[in-house]
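Entry:
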Amino acid sequence: MGQQTHHVERAEQRVEGDERVTLWYFIGALAVGGAERTLVDLVNNVDRDRYDVTIWTMFDDNRLAPDVDPAIPIRTLGMKNARDGDTFVGGATNPLDYVRVPLRFVRAVRRERPDIVQSFLFLDNTVARIAGLASPETLVITGARGLQNRTNPVVKAVDRLLIPLSDYIVSNSISGARTYVRRGAKADRVDVVHNGRNLDAFVDASPAPLREELSIPADAPLVGMVSRLVPKKGQVDLVDAWPRVRESHPDAHLVLVGDGAERGALAARAASLGVADSVHFIGNRDDVPQVLAALDVFVFTSYSEGLSGALLEAMAAGKPIVATGIVENRELVTDGETATLVPTHAPDAVARAVVALLADPGRAAALGRAAQAEAVERFSLERMVEDFEAFYESVLTD
């Protein structure tokens, strides 16, 4: 009751003094990833007249920092990345930093007492919840995005134990919100704000000259996936499906956009299957809208997601999509209407779906148009920002 009184008093003070809300976004790092990209888009577009925004990161390896509006402070706590040179943060070089760095954030929250701290993923959620104890008047909003901790019993237990320290939990998917309610969160403290993207860049993109870049024929069918190369994204199923696709379309080529720990294993797998000459690893790209525009079919073989930004971008690009039928993907696309859905761990099903779309360009184009219309209507960046701002106003006066 005392903490709720503090929240009400702070809300009244803001109304009387017309003060901006101090809003701290807290994340492990501004690395290459869906949650991080959503954060960047959100901070760049939230109402700065209403919200005094700061980004805090634990790691100092912030590769998306150049994409953040220079007017927004980025305060890093100095943790060093153990995987220097990778495209994403893998862990701290010094294990003691997992104690020292969170304590620095706790002290900052206690000293500066922001109105809201919003975190996104397991590690930053954990630290944010603890930091909230140092400043009872600060609202702590933690994230449910992809539930990366669903299979690790220790991490899952810690997450469940600390749920009561979140004032609110905001998920980017309905399934994520339901999971947290099952774990013990109060339903009226859990909300859903779906991801949004700046879709104009994808709707209107001109194709990148990928065929010329990769020295493949101008009329060669081009299939692709955009994602980090990590096990849960399931690219191995797409690579395993590729020989079957090539049986029907010998001139087809596969493009894997992104980077990560699985790149070497995937390349070796393609070589062992005899298709290395038609599988191209092109790394992270700054021209993803143009790359998507060049594809004939987009494939998304992920085993688990929150609400996939990569899948949403492919929808906005108007691409015919083959995606796994996990519940999170079904919040974005509908089988037979805006995509072809296949089971996870099913290379044969992936191959059949890709072959069918390449063989029927008219149906492929119709699926792409329907997916694009759905993306524009439901998942714009403007809608996401508006939903977050409405959420903030509701919790500030709760």
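The longest strand covers residues 51-59.
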